[in-house]
Amino acid sequence: MKMSSIFNHGMVLQREQVITLSGISEPHEKIFVSFADIRLQTLTDATGNWQIKLDPQQAGGPFSMNIRTEHHEVSFFDILIGDVFILGGQSNMELPLRRTLDLFSEDLKMIHEPKIRQFSYPITYRFDEPGHIIEDGHWKLAQQDDLLDFSAVGFFFAKKLYDLYQIPIGLIQTAVGGTPIEAWLPEQTLRKIGGYRYELDRCKEDSYIQLTQETEGKQQLQWYKYLDKNDRGIKEKWFKTKFKGIESRAFAVPNTWEETELEHIRGSVWFQKVFNLPEEPLTNELLLKLGTIIDGDETYLNGVLIGQTSYRYPPRRYKIPQGLLKKGENLLTVRIISTHSTGGFIKGMPYMLIQKEMVLPLTGEWQYQIGTVTEAAPSTTFFQYKPSGVYNAMIAPLHSVNIKAILWYQGESNTNKPIGYHQLLTKLIQNWRERWKQPNLPFIFTQLANFNPGHRYQSNSAWALLRNEQRLALRNPNTAMAVTIDVGEANDLHPQNKKTVGERLALCAQFLAYQENSIIYSGPLIKEVQRKNGALHLWFEHIAHGLVCMGDSLQTFMICGKDEHFLPAKAFIDGDCVVVFHEHIRHPLHVRYGWSDNPESANLYNSEGLPASPFTTESL
Predict the structure, then answer these.
(1) Contacts of 412 (CB under 8 A, 6+ apart)
(2) pLDDT band at 288 (very low <50, low <70, confident <90, very high)
(3) Given 3.40.640.10, 2.30.30.100, 3.30.465.10, 2.60.120.260, which CATH number is that of 232-374?
(4) What is the 3-state secondary structure (H, E, C) of 106-118?
(5) SS3 helix, strand, coil % of the chain, rounded to 5?
(6) What is the 3-state secondary structure (H, E, C) of 253-307?
(7) Which of 341, 321, 346, 332 is nearest to 299 (CA)?
(8) pLDDT tens digits for range 168-211
């Protein structure tokens, strides 16, 4: 007898909806199910498939469940009835709590919430047809042993709702880093849209996938073998002793390799920092923070490897083994491996050694030597990014699992082609609702956070375009959007403040899923524009008790005339509207707000402290 692994110990089942159980056994075999005081039975069909439905249940638990046939039996324990949410999207939804410890390490130390649970399963994909069974995966409880593996957005969302309602929360984590929205759409939908036929057909060839993976795997292996074999630093063991002679040069950390002799190097460069500890370490709770490094790193302290990361985005937070750090002189060595990009230590990140209250900065002058120079690493095909693959493997098998709502945080991987994103998102919303057979299923999504250092005003911002496309998707009924342009980080694609994101999504869920109709769940959304006396008057939805400027004057408004050339504009709040004007534009045509990759100075809010969404009146 075989069932999806989502049916397992510790599972959360959706309250107040029919509960569907299904699996595979022998053809024409009786299936007996017992749950609480319920006893049911059914018969498998000619292919061995079976399905049985339990009447809607009220929140509660823990319960046990027994499923048996004449020859097989399985029992599940610690089952809760509560509210179940899908966590969909890419890396910012997937990002675990362990990646937010710079902000929330103290907050998380005392967390013990066994009625908040998350089901996670390995990244998988398939292109032949939609799947029916989830092979692997298990439920984890929000307590110390497993807490840091939870989606950070998901946990803070669930914590807010559980504190409010005291109803068990189940999170089904399906997000996969780097995936474009096309990977989450069914094949039939993409074929109707057009433009995906070649990839859809090609990925159905198992031989193509296997050959690609084998070839690229060998090329990657050969690249790293060459790198290590020819690395002077490995041969001469630079990780053990200070650089000798006059070959090493100074480098200011943090900094990029741009405009230095290292700018075009692909290979390895070794960096060293000698620092002094005034006294013996008093504790074994020692942590090394090395910001974020491009691309990969191997980090050594006094000749011992204490951590390594293979790609750019994870923050380097390495625990120092007890007894390794010593009074007096210590040697920190970092081997940076540049695979594709210009390397560097990302600015604006922490570079320090921490021992409880003691903080020892590690910025400033380091020494470096070049270990290996080679060509860029061979590319890798990530098949989880291909159209329909993760939908078939990770979403389709869940359609029989009843849920409360869908949370969606995705879009970064579609900023290369933002126009039309709202149409794809609309197709996804419609299709998922149809497949879940819940036409009004609440769909709550996160607008992209601010990212990238740069100009306050950008005429060609792909991120601004995609945010506007996300706003347009609100035309779908029973949807809501959390605006996050004030909680991103210019230098980090994965900002750590996932608590604010999760709690703003929870506000949306309170309104849509829990029907708290009086709650203010959204920041201001542009509704109407009127042209009066050489200015544009903007009216908004969701202003609560009024519009608020968080600062001396409104920022990031732009205005254009008939030439459609946008210029920075002046703006002020006049009652329930915003008036925007430019002294040299007599006949204004359109307004943009927050129109840049990183509109961190955007400061229009409502009275509840929720930020206004970026917009352009061109799409009204």
Answers:
(1) 90, 91, 92, 448, 451, 493
(2) very high
(3) 2.60.120.260
(4) HHHHCCCEEEEEE
(5) 25, 35, 45
(6) ECCECCCCCCCCCEEEEEEEEEEEECCCCCCCCEEEEECCEECEEEEEECCEEEE
(7) 332
(8) 999 999 999 999 999 999 999 999 999 999 999 999 999 999 99
